[in-house]
Amino acid sequence: MSHAHSADLTEHAGHHGHAHDHDDEHHESFVSKYIFSMDHKMISRQFLITAIIMAVIAMTMSIIFRMQLAWPGEKFGFINAILGDKWGKDGILDPNMYLALVTIHGTIMVFFVLTGGLSGTFANLLIPYQVGARDMASGFLNMLSYWFFFLSSVIMLASLYTENGPASGGWTIYPPLSALPEAMPGSKLGMTMWLISMTLFVVSSLLAR
Ligand code: HEM
Known about the structure:
By secondary structure, this protein is mainly alpha-helical. It is built from seven helices and no strands.
């Protein structure tokens, strides 16, 4: 019996070595390895890098609105340098932009850092190891999941550049501030872009597998 068992093992090892010869190394280009990767470890890194960038942006926002709160009326050159004359005239944060920055700070921290960043990074990295699988169930859907997350991040950041500013009613997006376009400046295009971004974010979460 032990004889049969060892023969089995040998065959298995041989088969494994053979499979390895045809592994990813062969047909991999830069694009398929680093950009449109279907490998859970690379997708995990992509989520991590994107989430770190989003976290730095959201931290910068918190520094801007917290300094305004701590020293109201004080002129901060860097606020004007970052936000320009429209939202940071003479280095004083515009009240509507204050509300917008708090909202987008909360949104980015909760969705893009905590939800997307942590689960996108660690679920992708650890679940295959924990269940003893080579990868997630569908590398292709997993790849789409990251790119929907990326698109969603870009649209959320792009909403900062709309004429009336981004969504400003708080990250919970309660009506009426979110529902009525005339409620506040950020309730117009900014709010719509917030919703489009969140829709893509949800698609990303659903595709992660
Ligand atoms: C650099 C670190 C951070 C600073 C200085 C900071 C500061 C602040 C401050 C001062 C507010 C309240 C603003 C106001 O109501 O006037 C706020 C709101 C908020 N923060 Fe942070 N925060 C930081 C990191 C984080 C992190 C790591 C998270 C979550 C993971 C987070 C989530 C939120 C949320 C959800 C809100 C509420 C947003 C809203 O009311 O719409 N923050 N933050």
